[in-house]
Amino acid sequence: MIEMLLRRLVLGFVTVWLVSVIIFAGVELLPGDACTAVLERDAQGKVLETCREELGLNRPAIQRYFSWAAGAIQGDFGVSVDGITSISSQVGLRVKNSMLLAAGALSVGVPLSIFLGVIAGLWRDRFVDIVVSTTAIFAMTIPEFVSATILVLIFSIGLGWLPAVVLTPADAPALEFFPEFVPASIVLTLVMVAHIMRMVRSSVIEVMAGDYVQMATLKGVPYWRIVFRHALPSALLPAINVVALTVAWLLGGVVVVEVVFNYPGLGRMAIDAISDRDLPVIQALVMLVAAVYVGVNLLADLMTMFLNPRLRTLHMRSK
Amino acid sequence: MSGMSVQQMDVRKPLFRRWLGILFEVARLPSGMVGLFLVGAHLFFAIFSPWLAPYDYKALDSGLILGLPTAEHWLGTDHLGRDVLSRMMLGGREALLVCAMAIPITMIWGGLTGVYLGLRGGWADEVVMRLVDAFLALPGILPLMVFVAVLGNGNEVLTPTLAFFFGIPVIRVARAATHDVVARDFVLASRARGHSRLSIMRRELLPNVFDVLMVEGAMRLSWMLLTFSSLSFLGFGVSPPTPDWGQSISEARVYMSLAPWGVLGPMIALSTLIIGVNLTADALAKTLGIDRSKKAVV
C-alpha cells in the first residue's frame, strides 16, 4: 500500500517535471522568442540584442530553464512580455473565475450524470436508456460552439431569459458573475454529463451482471436493496476517475466556451496570450493546467484506492 | 473461446473482402446505417460541391448584405453579401481533406509505436510512456493553437500537427491492445521460432490489434474534425476567404440576431458530419465486438 502510494506520487512528480521540459523545449524550438514578439518583425539587430539582454534571453537554454522552473515551483512565473504585469497575479484572478464556472457545472453535472447513468444502466436497452444514451451521443459530439450558439439563439435572442455574453470585468468579485456565467455553465454541463453518464452506465451494467449480484438475487435479496447496497458502491468507483478528468478539463480546456461567452477565465487568457505571442504567459498557463491535471488524477487514484480494498493489495500496474 | 477462433479465421481472409463484409454488417445496425448515410452524403458534397454550388463562394454582392432567404439565395447572404448555401456546401472540404490525411498518419505512427512498446517493454517502454503521460496532461487545444500561431495555418502545418498530437493517446491504446495479445501462445511460439521483433509485430501482433486500431481511428476522426472546426472557429484554422464551417459560424454569430439563418446552415452541416462519423465508429465497435465505453476517456 505505502509502496504503491509512493510510486504514484513519484510518477506524478515525474510527469509534471516532463511537462515542464516539454513546454520549455517546445517554446525553445519554435521560431521567435519574447523579444521578437514584442518588437515585431522589423526589429533591428541592435534593439533585439538589448531586449534579449534585458530579459536574460541570451543566457544558455539550460540556465534559463532552471531559473524559470525554480520560479514556477514558488508560484512565480515572471512577468508578461509587456515587462510589467506579474503573471501570477493575473493567473490568480482567472483561476478564481474558472473555478466559479467549473463549480457551477460540477454541482449540477455530477449528481445529474450519476443519476442518469444509473437509470440508463439499470434499464439497459429500454426506452429510458435509448433516450438518455442517444441524447448523450449528441451532447458529446456536437461542438461546444454549436450547442452554445443554439442556447444563445433560443434563450437569449428568442426568449430573452439569459445574457448572451459576459460583460463583467475579470477582476470583479465572484457574485457579480452570477446571472452571466449560467449559459457557459450549461454548455459545459451538457458535455460533462454525457461523458460521465456513459461511464457510469457501462459500469452499472457490468456490475449488475457480476457473480455476487446474481448470488444476492438467488438468495432472494430485494432488487432495490441489491442495487443500493451491493451494486452501486462498486459501480460508482470508476466514476471518480472520470470526474477527475472532467475537473481537469473544466479548469483548463474550455477555451472555446470561454471565447463564445466572453468569459474571463483561464481559457480566454490563454487564447489572448497566444494572439499576443505572450510566451511567458502561455508557458505558465500550460504548466498550471498540466499540474492540475496530474494532481487531480492522482487524487482520484488515491481515493479509489482508499475506497476499494481490492486495489490496496493488488499491484496496480499503470496501463 | 469459440468467438475468438471465428475472429482469427476472419483475420486470414483477404483484407479487402473482410472489410467489405464488416461494412455491410455495420450498415445493418441502425446507428451504422444513419452514420454511413451521413458520412456518405458529406463525402459526396465534399467531392462534387465545386460543380454543385450555385454561386462563387467568394463573390461579394454589396447590394445584398445579410439578405433574407430568397428563391435566388436559399439560405440568404452573409455579412459580405456572399451566398450562404454555396459556402455551406463547400465548407467541409478543408476539414475533411486535412483530417483524411492526418488520421492515417496518426494511426500509423501512434499504432506502430504502441505495438512496438507493448512487445518490447523494458526501459524504453517506461521512458516513452512517461512522456506520453506528460503530453496527455497538456491542455487540449492549446498546444495546437501555439503551433498554428507560430508556424502558420496552412494545411502543411495543420496536418502534421494534428497527426502528432492525436497519435499520442493512440500509443496508449495500441500498447494496451498489444499487451492482451503478447502473452498468448502463438506469440510465444513465434518467439521460440526465433522471429525478430519486427517479424512478430508484422505477422502476429498487427493483425490482432488491427480491429482495435480501426475503431480507435474512426473515433479519433470524429474528434479531429471537432478539433479542426474548433480551431477554425477560434481563428486558428482555414484562412479566409476559403469557406469553412467553424469559421462561418464564428463570423455569422456576430449577426445572429439579425440573420439567424446564416449560422444555422453551417451548424447543421458540421454537426451532422461529426455525428455521422461518431455513429459509424460506434457501430463499427459493436460489429467488431470491441467495447469502447470501457476505454479511458482521454
Provide keyphrases for this structure.
A: 319 residues; mainly alpha; MetI-like fold; 2 domains; 15 helices; 75% helix; B: 298 residues; 73% helix; disordered N terminus
Give structural notes.
The complex is a heterodimer of chains A (319) and B (298). Chain A has helices at residues 2-29, 34-39, 45-55, 61-73, 87-122, 127-141, 144-158, 182-208, 211-219, 223-235, 237-252, 255-260, 266-275, 279-307, 309-313. Chain A is mostly helical and 319 residues long. Chain A has two domains: 2-73, no CATH class; 88-276, MetI-like (MetI-like fold, Orthogonal Bundle). Chain A is globular. The two termini of chain A are 18 Å apart. Chain B is mainly α and 298 residues long. Chain B has a single domain, classed as MetI-like fold (Orthogonal Bundle). Helices cover 73% and strands 0% of the residues of chain B. Chain B has helices at residues 2-12, 15-28, 30-52, 84-90, 93-120, 122-137, 142-151, 155-182, 185-192, 197-233, 245-253, 261-288. Residues 1-9 and 293-298 of chain B have low confidence and may be disordered. The interface between A and B is large, with 56 and 50 residues.
Low-confidence stretches of chain B: 1-9, 293-298
Helix-strand sequence of chain A: HHHHHHHHHHHHHHH
Give the oligomeric state.
Answer: heterodimer
Please state the second-level CATH architecture of chain B: Orthogonal Bundle
Average pLDDT of chain A works out at: 81
CATH superfamily of chain B: MetI-like
Helix content of chain B: over 70%
- Please, what is the average pLDDT of chain B? 83
Q: What is the fold named in CATH at topology level of chain B?
A: MetI-like fold
**What is the number of helical segments of chain A per DSSP (H or I, 4+ residues)?**
15
In percent terms, what proportion of residues of chain B is strand?
under 5%
Rounded radius of gyration of chain B (Å)? 22 Å
CATH superfamily label of the largest domain in chain A:
MetI-like
Structural class computed from helices and strand pairing of chain A: mainly alpha
* Total number of domains of chain B: 1
Instruction: Identify the biggest protein-protein contact and residues per side.
Output: A-B, 56 and 50 residues
How would you characterize the largest beta sheet of chain A? Answer: none
